[in-house]
Amino acid sequence: MVVVEVISFDVWNTILDTKKMFALLSVELAKALQIELEKSSRVEKAVHKVYDRCKQRRRLGEINGFDIVVESQTLLAQELGASHEVVMSTIEKAFSTVDPQHLVYSDAISALELLYKLGFRMGIIGNTVFWSSRYTRELLERLGVARFFEIMVFSDATRINKPDRRIFLLFAKQMGVDPGSVAHVGDSVVEDVGGALSAGMKAIHIDRGRKSMLVLKDLGLALISELHQIIDVLEGL
């Protein structure tokens, strides 16, 4: 039996809340475009529409992790009737003003601290859409959790998107371990679970709406509802 030595994490919707970031970005875009805040829901709908469209292309391998940042910004600008420059500058403003404590899930910091104290090596495997990984890295730094991660592998730097197994294999190679000794934690069944399992890793799917934990040892898969449960399922993987 291969023992889990390394735990990799997705960031958005696993450690940080994407919906809250989208809501903040939508308010800032509404201000930049001089749209009444009462009507900012139209902006937020546009953000989600473009996000879903780009995410589908990402999953199908139709666009790499670097180009998707520019394309998603361009599509959002077109959807809102704005310039690409306005969208870029608004993203910059949103990230420079947001309090990362507003975005982090309540279970994230304490769970990471516990795993770190227990001696698990940890890292990040993340995709990008509207913003480059620089903004995500800076948020993790400001939050005080970047120190827990030995490496951060993002799709805009590698030009490889999850669920492509190559980004998971690259992570394992950079950590100097066999993929089988890595457990990847993420919220997406396709991008996180599917990608990790295809690379020979173990997978832990977090769904905060779940009522109970479940370990499917034969598949190398665990289902959890909060990050504190990671330690409870590792032995069963």
Polypeptide structure, described:
It is a single chain. The chain is of the alpha/beta class and 237 residues long. It has two domains: 6-17 and 101-235, HAD superfamily/HAD-like (Rossmann fold), CATH 3.40.50.1000; 18-100, Orthogonal Bundle (DNA polymerase, domain 1), CATH 1.10.150.400. It is built from eleven helices and seven strands. The protein has helices spanning 18-32, 41-59, 67-80, 84-97, 100-103, 108-117, 133-143, 155-158, 165-175, 189-198, 230-234; strands at residues 6-9, 121-126, 151-154, 182-186, 202-206, 214-216, 221-224. It has a seven-stranded mixed beta sheet. α1 packs across α4 (84-97), α2 (41-59) runs antiparallel to α3 (67-80) and α3 packs across α4. The radius of gyration is 18 Å and the shape is globular. The N and C termini lie close together (9 Å). Belongs to the HAD-like hydrolase superfamily. This is HAD family hydrolase. One of its GO terms (molecular function) is metal ion binding.
Strand-helix topology:
Layout: E1 6-9, H1 18-32, H2 41-59, H3 67-80, H4 84-97, H5 100-103, H6 108-117, E2 121-126, H7 133-143, E3 151-154, H8 155-158, H9 165-175, E4 182-186, H10 189-198, E5 202-206, E6 214-216, E7 221-224, H11 230-234
Parallel strand pairs: 1-2, 1-4, 2-3, 4-5, 5-7
Antiparallel strand pairs: 6-7
Helix pairs in contact: 1-2, 1-4, 2-3, 3-4
GO molecular function, one term: phosphatase activity
Keywords: Hydrolase, Magnesium, Metal-binding
InterPro entries: HAD-like_hydrolase, HAD-like_sf, HAD-SF_hydro_IA, HAD_sf
